[in-house]
Amino acid sequence: MGKLICNDLQVISGEVESPVHSEYISFEKVIEILDTENENDESDYMGGGGYIGTTAEQFICDADAIDKGQLQHLAMKLGFEDILGQELRSLSTGEMRKVVICRALLRDPEVLVLDEPFDGIDSDSCITLKNIFASCVENGITIVLLLNRFSEILPEVTHVAYLKDCSLFTSGRKEEILQSEALLRFHSFHYTLPAQLPTYESGYSLVSDRTQPLIEMKNVSVRYGDKTVLYMLDWTVLPDQNWTIAGPNGSGKTTLLNLISGDYVQAYGNDIHLFGRKKGSGESVWDIKERLGYVSSSFQQRYRVGATAKAVIISGFFDSIGVYRKYSKQQENIALQWLSILGMESQKNTSFHRLSYGEQRLLLIARAMVKQPMILILDEPCQGLDDANRVMVLKLINHLGQSAKTQLLYVSHHTEDKIPCIEHILQLVPAEGGGSTAEIFSAATEDGNSFRSNL
Predict the structure, then answer these.
(1) How many CA atoms lie less than 13 Å away from 18 in the CB half-sphere?
(2) How does pLDDT run across 138-172, given as a tens digit for each residue?
(3) For the whole model, what pTM was predicted?
(4) How many CB atoms lie within 10 A of CB 30?
(5) Which of 93, 191, 317, 438 could potentially form a cystine with 392 if both were Cys, beta carbons 3.0 to 4.6 Å apart?
C-alpha cells in the first residue's frame, strides 16, 4: 500500500474526478470491458456489419501513445506476448487479467488500485506481478491492494486497513495490525456443515452404466486457425473419481471443461464419450447439461439478466440464465435453504447485479450444486471470496465430492484451496505438436505432492 494519499476509494479508483492519475483494476471492471465488446458486437450485427472484436494489443494501446517496446517487454515478462493479436473475448480469465494490468501499468499512473490482482493468475505469473508491483513502489507509484487473503499482502506494504461489513474495523502500520490479537479474534471463524444438504431427485434422460467411465477422451485436439490449444490429449474419469485440472494461464483448462459441458463445437469432431455415450451420437446439449453443474468467471460474466438472488439459484434446476418456467414449491424451498446455508436469506429478493462480485459467486456456486449433479465443474470457484466464505465453500464442495452422487472437476491456482476428497490430478503441459496435452498424477504420490506445491 505504500502510503495512502486519499481516504476516498472512489477518488483513488478514478470513479470521480481526482487530482492524480489513478488506475483501478477489478473483476467488475473486466466484466464491464467484456460487456462493452458484446454490446458493440450486437449493435454492429443489427446494423448488418460483421464486428471485428478488439484485440489485446488494441485495448492496451487504446488512444494513448503507448511505447510498443515497453508493451512487448511487459507482455514477455507476464507470458502473454503470443495473445496480443487475439480478441479480448477469446482470452482466458488469467490472460484477460494480465492484459488489463499491463494496460494500467503502461499508462504511468501515480496511484494504482488493485482489487484481488492475483486471483485467476498462475503461480509463476503471480511472482512476476509481485516483482513488478515492488518496482512500482520503488519508482514512487502508490499501490493500494484490496485483498481477501492475508498471504497476498506484499512486503512493500506499509499500512493495512481491515474492513468488515462495510465498516473500518482497524487500521495502522502493517506489523501492528497483523499482530493484533483483537484482529485475530475478530477474523477467526469456524464453519460447521449443516446436518444435511438440501436434496433433490431428478431423473436423467441419458441412462449410463456406472461401471463405465463418465468421461473418456482419446487423442483430443482443439485448434483455432493456426493455433493449437489441445493436442492428442487422453483422459479417463472413472466413477467415484474427483479431479483437479491444472496448468498455467492459457494452457487450455477452460477449453477442456467446455468440451465436457457442451459449449464447444469442436467437441463433436473428437473422440469424446460422456456417461457411456459418444458425444454427438444423438443427445442434445440439454441432455448433457442436466447432469452437470458449472461455475466459472466466464459464466458469471454471461449471467446478465436481472434475476433475484432466489431466482438465480432456482435457475440451476433448469440450466438456464434466469427463470422462464414455472418452478415447484419444492424447488423454491430448496433455493431458500441454500440461501440460509450461505447466510444470504435477507438478500433473497435482491437483484443479482446489485450484489458484490463475491456474493454473485456464492449464488452461482449454490446454483451449480442445487440439483447435486453427477459432475460438478468448478473453475476457480473461490474467486472473489473472503476467508470465511472460502472455508464454507470448500467444505461444501468436499461434502458433495465425498457423496456417491457427485464427482468434482476442480480448477484453482491457490494451493491453500485444497479439496481433501480430490485424489487425481490432470496437469496440462506443453505438447510436441503445439498447445497442451495431459499428464496424470495421483495426489497421494510423491509426484502429486510435488505437483501441488508448484500449482
Answers:
(1) 21
(2) 999 999 999 988 889 999 999 999 888 778 888 89
(3) 0.86
(4) 21
(5) 191
